[in-house]
Design a protein that fits this description.
single chain; about 675 residues; alpha+beta; nine-stranded mixed beta sheet; seven-stranded antiparallel beta sheet; 34 strands; elongated
Length: about 675
């Protein structure tokens, strides 16, 4: 066996490498000069017997290892050249790469640990920011998570003693290698050492949900590099050579009479201003000539559409497999007369010639425009009919692009923008793959914050609201809303998630489909694992950027027992409006923040909790809890639901007090230590 040992050093460079097989941007490209030691040259094997080479393999390898070690100690490679960063041979493992990481605040909380587990399962690098690493690792243990590399490839780093109420602790070191931030913090409520219920260690809603989130948002804006949209040319349209990569495919193949041609587009791209400057006695005369710069920048696709016999023109590129999995879709710069075209994509997993993925796009009328087509708009099509249960487009192995101008849309329905006769459509530059900006900071807020702000100091309106708005313990809804404002204003691409009443999976009988809304108009319940799934999907979906949404489990009977796929979460986001244009969709602007109302009296609290709708929700386990220091002894806060679902067995004030006593025994006192109960 002949072996070659390479010892070299390189310089880390950053940039983007473009390959026909893979167009994914590389974070780090290492330039490695190949300095190869041939064992036969270094040790003199050319005259050695074969028996010696085969039988002495161990000696050969050991000798090579000795030479390498001595060379590294001397700070030189095996050819005598000085090596940068040379050091002694070591058995210590290389440090784990902390890059493209998701920093999770509140990582050891009920919701936070679900989020950490989900992100690691996806294979992400996660930095868990916690106040107590020992408690955090104990919480992670139930998910089979330990610090370091996980079985599925995810990597967990744990940052200890992180207190979000102290901005000086949110340093650049904490954000090292971080590109996304998830905020799942919450006030810490429970029983102190004296047995009194309250906020532990001063972790009040104001300090955590308002000032703490404000500090996180400010630090993220300072230390997290802001993403920008990226694109790369996939199919250039700028030269004769590029033109040769296309073939036309008109309806003549099926006996039609339409015809089209692709040609280089010669058009003006600017002016040349030339002349000669004369200076005579303080005056100047400038003979000036303005001339057009003429050069090819794209294609013109022109032809004639004849309805009889077919009614379509087409062109497609020759097969050339390319990996676009790191991108979100493709874009074209185009000008025409308002036509609606189809863009076809062939992939490796399509076996039949008539199978393709197809999307439509509108050509700007009389002016240049950029058209972006995301992957999710491409529909699997077989023999001109869409396949309802077909697999989504996989951009990892795209073979071919095609353009179609047809009198038909999907499934034989007419194309309303079709115009028979001559047409001419210009394409500038070519087809590009585009990576859109995705959320870089995601806040877990709460349903009810917008309702609370709209109510303000109007006590009569507050009495008509859902119980969490009426109770608003510690002004939590006001402070969470302040946190939202900080995140939306920090300058990073963001998303805000407002779950309804959260509960643990053990409280849910079965999985369920989810629902989204905006304007703080829904109530209900949702499992924390559902929230974790939405967080994971949100971080990877560009159309979640700049949106504030409420989420809950669907209450429809046919939604029960069904798992929610990430693609379904994406579809929910597609129907949501960006915050900047929500008024165009019939939503009110975000209300101005208001100061927290005065705490409710004990008598008023009893009245709120005695509401039959509250009792019905509590009996079914709906609602969310405010966690405490030991993740126990939590107080349940329920959302108002339809009173028609149950009848009350407790009448009057005494009945209400009896119900509250039983409720406390069921949800709080049963979890207390025996000595405290006594």
């Amino acid at each position: 066996m002949v072996a070659a040992l390479r010892v070299s050093h390189g310089v880390v460079q950053s940039g983007m490498s473009v390959h026909r097989r893979s167009l994914v941007p590389h974070k780090h490209c290492v330039a490695v000069p190949r300095q190869t030691l041939q064992p036969s040259q270094a040790i003199g094997f050319e005259n050695a017997p074969v028996e010696f080479i085969v039988g002495g393999g161990v000696l050969v390898v050991g000798s090579i290892a000795f030479l390498v070690n001595e060379a590294l100690k001397a700070g030189k490679d095996l050819e005598g050249n000085q090596v940068a960063n040379a050091g002694e041979w070591t058995d210590e493992p290389a440090p784990l790469p902390r890059e493209n990481a998701v920093l999770v605040f509140g990582a050891s909380g009920r919701c936070g640990k679900e989020i950490v587990a989900k992100l690691l399962k996806r294979g992400r690098t996660v930095v868990a920011a916690v106040r107590d690493s020992a408690k955090a690792m104990s919480a992670f243990k139930e998910y089979g998570i330990s610090e370091g590399v996980q079985k599925n490839g995810g990597i967990l780093f744990v940052e200890d003693a992180v207190d979000v109420t102290k901005p000086e602790m949110l340093s650049g070191d904490l954000f090292k290698g971080v590109t996304k931030v998830v905020v799942a913090t919450g006030a810490v409520f429970g029983r102190d050492s004296n047995g009194n219920m309250g906020y532990i260690d001063g972790m009040t809603p104001e300090k955590v949900d308002a000032k703490g989130v404000e500090a996180i948002a400010a630090a993220a804006a300072k230390f997290v590099p802001k993403q920008k949209q990226e694109d790369v040319m996939v199919i250039p349209m700028a030269s004769e050579k590029d033109l040769e990569r296309w073939q036309k495919l008109d309806d003549v193949i099926m006996g039609g009479n339409s015809d089209s041609v692709l040609a280089l587009n010669e058009r003006s791209t600017g002016f040349t201003w030339s002349g000669k400057l004369f200076v005579e006695e303080g005056d100047f005369v400038v003979p000036v000539r303005l001339a057009l710069n003429e050069r090819s920048t794209g294609f013109t696709w022109s032809g004639k559409l004849v309805v009889e016999g077919g009614g379509f023109c087409g062109a497609r590129s020759y097969p050339d497999t390319v990996d676009l999995s790191g991108y979100d879709g493709v874009s074209l710069r185009v000008k025409g007369c308002g036509e609606t075209l189809k863009l076809n994509i062939k992939t490796d997993d399509l076996n039949e010639p008539e199978d393709t993925y197809q999307a439509t796009f509108d050509v700007p009328d009389g002016e240049w425009g950029d058209v972006f087509i995301p992957w999710h708009e491409f529909v699997p099509v077989k023999r001109a009919r869409s396949v309802a249960d077909g697999p989504p487009l996989n951009p990892r192995a795209i073979q071919q692009f095609g353009l179609v101008y047809s009198r038909f849309s999907f499934n034989g329905f007419p194309n309303p923008a079709f115009k028979p006769g001559e047409f001419s459509i210009e394409f500038d530059g070519g087809i590009k793959a585009v990576k859109k900006v995705k959320p870089q900071i995601l806040l877990i807020s709460s349903a009810g914050v917008e309702r609370n702000a709209l109510v303000g100091n109007d006590e009569e309106k507050r009495k008509q609201e859902i119980p969490i708005v009426q109770l608003n313990p510690g002004g939590i809804l006001n402070h969470k809303y302040s946190g939202e404002i900080a995140v939306r204003s920090c300058g990073l691409p963001y998303a805000v998630l407002r779950p309804t009443g959260m509960s643990d999976d053990a409280d849910q009988a079965a999985p369920s489909l989810l629902e989204m809304s905006q304007g703080d108009r829904i109530t209900g319940k949702i499992a924390r694992s559902d929230v974790a799934q939405i967080v994971d999907a949100t971080l990877g979906f560009f159309d979640a950027t700049g949106k504030t949404v409420e989420v809950r489990r669907s209450e429809a009977s046919d939604a029960q027992g069904k798992f929610m796929a990430d693609t379904q979460v994406q579809k929910l986001y597609l129907s949501m409006s960006k915050d900047t244009v929500r008024t165009r969709q019939g939503l009110l602007p975000f209300p101005a923040p208001v100061d927290p109302p005065a705490p409710v009296s004990e008598e008023r609290k009893e009245e709120i909790l005695a509401d039959p709708r509250v009792k019905a929700a509590t009996e079914r386990g709906a609602g969310g809890r405010v966690r405490d220091a030991d993740e126990e002894n939590a107080t349940t806060l329920t959302t108002m639901e339809d009173a028609s679902r149950t009848t009350s067995n407790y009448e009057g004030k005494e009945g209400a007090r009896e119900w509250i006593r039983q409720w406390r025994a069921k949800t709080l006192e049963k979890q207390l230590p025996e000595e405290v109960k006594a």
